[in-house]
Amino acid sequence: MYLFKKNLFTVFLSFAFLLVSHPAKSRATDKSYDIVVYGGTSAGIAAAIQSSRMGKSVVVIEPSARIGGLTTGGLGQTDIGNKQVIGGISREFYQNIRRYYEKAENWKWQKKEEYMDGGQTRTAKGEDAMWTFEPSAALKVYAEMIAREKIDIIYNQRLNRSNGVKKQGQHIVEIEMESGEKYRGKIFIDATYEGDLMAAAGVSYTIGRESNSEYGETLNGVQANKVSTTLRGTVSKNGIHHNFIDGVDPYIVKGDPSSGLLPFIVEGGPGIDGHGDKGIQAYCFRMTLTDHPENRIPFKKPKNYNELEYELLFRNYEAAKGAVEKMYNYGDPLVPWINSAMPNRKTDTNNQKGFSTDFIGQNHDYPEASYAEREKIIERHRSYQQGLMWTLAYHPRIPEKVRNAVSKWGTCKDEYERDDGWQEQLYVREARRMVSDYVMSQRNCEGYEVIDDPVSMAAY
After folding, report:
1. Cα(411)–Cα(409) distance, integer angstroms
2. DSSP at 129
3. What are φ and ψ of residue 459, in 5° steps?
4. CATH 3.30.565.10 fits 11-208+432-445, yes or no
5. Domain map of the chain by residue range?
6. Are 439 and 5 in contact (CB under 8 A)?
7. For residues 431 and 8, is the Cβ–Cβ distance under 8 A?
8. Element (H, E) at 350
9. 407 CB contacts (<8 Å, ≥6 apart)?
10. Longest alpha-carbon distance in the chain
11. N or C, where is the chain less crowded by C-beta within 10 Å?
12. pLDDT single digits (tens) 365-406
């Protein structure tokens, strides 16, 4: 039906699509609105706020117990290119974040002047917005923004994906939840990361990466080579910040192919460079960590811990032959993560280097999986990442310098509902992607194709 092909965080984080229906008379037992938003992500909240400001009745149906998606689920290090591109309700959010942190009572674990943001997210002098934040701060800001508008929020209601979409012709008129609750509307917006409403409504979509030949690209599909070339002839280095160092043996018994490959290694390699497959960008939890002793929960070994799953990590350090501080010439030389500073001595911790927080290859079934199957995939990701953090902090095969660096960190007592300090929201970077009459491609990104009717701007 409508637009986009791909981006790093999946189309549904940034662009909700609209399915317009004919007006229908409501019954007394129906919940009827002008606009029904399925998914309380940042995109869903923004859509609801704008709808309310246009004088429309609107409801946000959130499948979980928490609104905000990744914004309230750990991603506080805003990936931003040109700050001037950020406008509208998005900028309002960041302006409200700045106002939130101007209040002394919101600095519990450190003084405001002690906090140093960095890189592209540094708040410049005189700037009207702030680009880094705690998940709890984002949740409070969103709650205040919603409270100012006439928006109904419904929690813990999941779409009946098998037969929960009622249409008249090509138009949705009603959706039904697993609970039996029904919502009628004139416009329906899918603002989930998974695109469940989109799929159930019969909208065309794809999963995975297309071959270069499908849209005349050079950087799509399998990246089997170390470098590729853009359409303009510029060299593009593939996975430059996510490689192992040389000398890591892939076999369970070093040097013995008959012993089999270590966990998570794909037999036969990645495939043919530039060809398409069903691979999707890896998922992880964007951890909110702290080194404040009064707020820190030490990393714990998960019950189903399997040491063999971290053998590649051990061997990567062993290949450094003691010079772990010289393993990499970028990021943290010791620890395989990006530990971005958030206010109150907290972090937004993300994947980096060859063996890190991304559970590579273990999410390929997630987009089309049932709710129960998705929960298993989510818990498997959590268990892997919990095991990774415990391993880095305490396992004797990890160099002492690394253990000392990691063990001072832990999850936060004051951020999420779980007792162990872990969030529920998995970083679903992409899942289903809508395919429309017009598909954005590398040709747009490099300026070979320019549309004359843009509806949004982005910078990364």
Report:
1. 7
2. -
3. -145, 135
4. no
5. 11-208+432-445, 289-412
6. yes
7. no
8. strand 346-351
9. 298, 299, 393, 394
10. 73
11. C
12. 999 999 999 999 999 999 999 999 999 999 999 999 999 999
